[in-house]
Amino acid sequence: MSTPHVPEPAGLILGVLTATPPLIIKVIALLEPEYGPIEECVGPLDFTFTSYYDAELGPNIKRWLISFENLINRERLAAVKLYTNDVEKQLSPTTQRTVNLDPGLLTLGNFVLATGKNNAHRIYLSRGIFADLTLIFRAKTFNPLPWTYPDYADPDMIQLLNRLRENYKCKLTQTVQTI
């Protein structure tokens, strides 16, 4: 019989897509009070993996990846996604989004994104939000899965997430030492 236990907290990572780069400042201003200080903000990076968002966000979309200093309990992922959905609405003057926010959890074993879209490989969390297992950590690196979005399967993104995982590992060590 397995004995349930609460896993260690995760690193909160936020993917941001927008064709309006100044919005990143507003995104950060709305998220820091909720999730704490930004550890790192990487971008703007070219987003050329798909034209899926062009009609909604506009041309010349850029990506940022934001990591937060504070670790969070994993069960908060659905609530974080709902909050980022509200931020998207706040920053969009019409029903058409101007920014796409994709929160995820980084752990030693995987990287999981939150989504409102169901699929065979997604696990329902709550309140209409699913967990998308995006990358798994094997053989000293994150590895994509058959359904991983092309931008998260990109070697540069994987290298960045591997580096953020090392930061996360240090935070876990510090957290254990302070308990």
Topology, please?
Elements: E1 10-18, H1 23-35, E2 38-46, H2 54-57, E3 62-72, H3 77-90, E4 99-106, E5 110-115, E6 122-126, E7 129-138, E8 141-144, H4 150-153, H5 155-178
Antiparallel strand pairs: 1-3, 1-4, 2-3, 4-5, 5-7, 6-7, 7-8
Report on this model:
The chain has helices at residues 23-35, 54-57, 77-90, 150-153, 155-178; strands at 10-18, 38-46, 62-72, 99-106, 110-115, 122-126, 129-138, 141-144. The protein is α+β, with helices and mostly antiparallel strands and 179 residues long. It is globular and about 50 Å long. The chain starts with 9 loop residues before the first strand and ends with a helix.
Sheet-strand content, in percent, reads 25-35%
Biggest beta sheet summary: 8 strands, antiparallel
Order of helices and strands: EHEHEHEEEEEHH
Strand segment tally: 8
Please provide a brief summary of the model.
With 179 residues, this protein is an alpha+beta fold. Helices cover 33% and strands 35% of the residues.
Notable features of this structure?
single chain, 179 residues, alpha+beta, eight-stranded antiparallel sheet, globular
